[in-house]
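Batch manifest, entry 17 of 40.
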Amino acid sequence: MLEALQFSFMRNALLAGLWVSLACGIIGTLVVANRLVFLAGGIAHSAYGGVGLAIFLGFSPFLGAMGFSLAMAVLLAVLSSRNKSRADTFVGVLWAVGMALGVLFVDLSPGYRADLMNLLFGSILTVSSRELWMMAGITFLVSVAVGLKYRDLLALSYDPEFAATRNVKVSSLYTLLLLLVAAGTVVAIQAVGLILVIALLTIPPILAERSCRSLASMMGVSSAWSALFIFLGLDLSYRYNLTSGATIILVGAFFFFLHSIWTHRRQA
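Output type: structure tokens
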């Protein structure tokens, strides 16, 4: 792995892995704690609409995915706040609409679309220096927002009714939470693609949850797990010429099942 650092794309990949780890550790913890896994999946997959639009209009797919994801997050927050019992229905519809729009925009785009599979399944090895700066900026903004609203997010995650009694604007905070999920999801898409991103958002927090007593410590441990998965996945993909996104997820799944077996035997 050390010899690979002579290549700029590998150095960029490792730095991207750092930002993805932090974003996934923070946002993934909030997703798991608030039971928003299906909703996060809907936001991730609907981002394909923004990717298709960006390809059609000829600008950065990263920016297209970000803009579309943020718009979908706001729309989901408005729809689900009015009718929480139908939240899963709204997620399913927007998930399908986003994917369908992406497919149509790609169909209407002229020329050969060589990077489409990278967007679907991830290719952290192709992250450019510009995208690296955008990932760093988004991760920084997410970290600052969570830090400033940590107590309110903590109350919302475990007892929304208690949060309301503390004069927390639950509806506005929920919208902010979905916007943060959208931003973190787009950062993670750079590593594993929008098809596999939900696994990177959920596996590390689930592993961290079993050994942490606070939301903040869970975010830290989850970020460490994410970094381990990404760096081991990168090493294996480089050594054996494998798809980086899929390798990262399989490394995470291996640790998840290994930890589950160990926990089960310990409790038996």
